[in-house]
Every structure is written in C-alpha cells, then in structure tokens.
Specification:
single chain, 261 residues, mainly alpha, globular
Length: 261
C-alpha cells in the first residue's frame, strides 16, 4: 500500500506539474498575444496618420488656393502625429519582435522610406513658401513616397502579427478582420486622395488614373468581402462595428463617390 500510495503521489504530482506548465504556457501566450496586438495596433495607427498626411499634402501641393491657415495648421499637426506614432510603433515592434531575424530588414526599409519622406516634406514646404503648384508628375511622386511609408509599416505589422499566438477561431477571425478592414480603409484613402488632387487641379480624369482607381476599388471590395465573412465569428460589439464600417463606406462615402465620378 505504501508503494502504491507513493506511486499515486508521483502520478498526481506529475499531473499537477503538467497542468501547471500548460496553464503557464497558456498565460504566457495570452500575455504575449496582448503585447503583440498592442504593437500591431500602434503600426495600424501610424499607417493611418501617414495616410492622412499623404492625402492632405496631395491636395495642398496641387492647389495653392487651398493653403489656408487652418489647412496648413492641420498639416503641421498631422506631421507631428506621424512622427510620434511612427517612433512609438517601431519601439513597440522592436520590444516584441526585435529578435526575429526579419525585423532588422523591415525596420531598415521603414527607416529608409521615412527618411525619404522627410526630404519630400522639405520640398513641400519650399513650394508653399514660393506659392507654387506642383505638376501632376511631381505630386504623384510625393503620393507614392508617402504610400511607401504606409506599405513599410504594413510589412513590419505583418511580422508582428506572424508571431502572435492564435487561440481558436475567434483570434484568427479578429486578426483577419483587422487586416481586411485596414485594406479597405487604406484603399478608400488612396482613391479619395487621388480624386481630391484631381479636383484641386480642376481637371478631368486621365486614363492611367482611371486604371489606378479601378485597382483601388477592387481592393476595397475584396477587403470588405473578407471582413464581412469573418465578422459573425466575432459577435457582439465587434461585429456591429464591422457592420457600421461597411455602412459608412458603401453608404455615405459611396454616395459622395458617385457624385464625384
């Protein structure tokens, strides 16, 4: 009996240790998931602010008459937000995935794109000081450079999300929904920025622009298709927010978009 009792104790202790280790791993992965999601959200925010700067600058370099004090102040505030958010996003990413081999390359590309953006800002300010309007080629080059920053942020965010532990269908659905809604919003922004620049120049669409805008629209609709498919798995307030996002894009914005075209 003593031997059996001793063996039973060993088995129970082993089971308890195994449960403890499993619980610890679950807790550790949950904590890791929270920090990685927070880092990813920082990168989402930085990309959103960079897109705002891209669109506002695109209008102002094309339309000198739009360079009102309020618009110029809005641009100044937006630039400051981009700088702060980008620095915070990179710091958060480095803290969570700094040891991942691909991170160094992604951070280097982002640094290069942002450095180029800073040079472009200087050119923008010189145009403002001279009261000059940029031609379409130069304005499009600015737009592409700002988009390069957005895409570099997206690439780093992808590295962060690739390290995030997945806890069942809900976590996967949440991550896919965030990615898809970002795709939708970003390409609505690219469409809106392109159209706003054309309106600022008071001219008609060109064939190359029509082709570019068609591509943006395809990515808007495919993003919505995926987000809509995953939303029911989220349920509750998260699902309602996805629905409201769709209503905004394909309701109020769509009506304005059709008038513009």
């Amino acid at each position: 009996l003593t031997l059996i009792g001793g063996l039973l104790f060993v088995v129970l202790a082993a089971n308890a240790a195994d449960h403890f280790l499993n619980d610890y791993r679950t807790w550790r992965e949950a904590a890791q998931s929270v920090s990685l999601n927070a880092a990813a959200d920082r990168l989402y925010d930085a990309a959103a602010d960079a897109a705002v700067e891209r669109g506002l600058t695109n209008i102002l370099v094309r339309g000198p008459a739009l360079r009102t004090p309020s618009n110029l102040e809005a641009l100044r505030v937006t630039r400051a937000k981009v700088d702060a958010e980008l620095a915070a996003a990179v710091a958060a990413a480095r803290a969570t995935i700094g040891t991942v081999p691909q991170f160094a390359g992604g951070a280097e590309i982002l640094d290069r794109e942002f450095s180029a953006l800073l040079t472009w800002r200087s050119d923008v300010d010189q145009a403002f000081a001279a009261g000059a309007a940029w031609n379409d080629e130069k304005a499009q080059a600015w737009f592409d450079q700002a988009t390069g920053v957005v895409d570099a942020l997206r690439a780093v965010r992808g590295l962060v999300e690739a390290q995030t532990p997945l806890f069942g269908k809900g976590t996967v659905a949440a991550m896919q929904t965030k990615r898809s809604l970002w795709q939708l919003v970003e390409h609505v922004g690219r469409e809106r920025g392109t159209l706003s620049g054309i309106i600022a120049e008071k001219r008609a669409l060109r064939p190359a622009e029509e082709l570019r805008l068609t591509g943006y629209r395809a990515l808007v609709e495919s993003g919505w298709f995926v987000a809509q498919g995953h939303a029911p798995l989220l349920g509750g307030e998260a699902e309602r927010r996805v629905t409201r996002a769709g209503q905004t894009v394909f309701g109020a914005y769509e009506a304005l978009r059709e008038q513009t075209y």
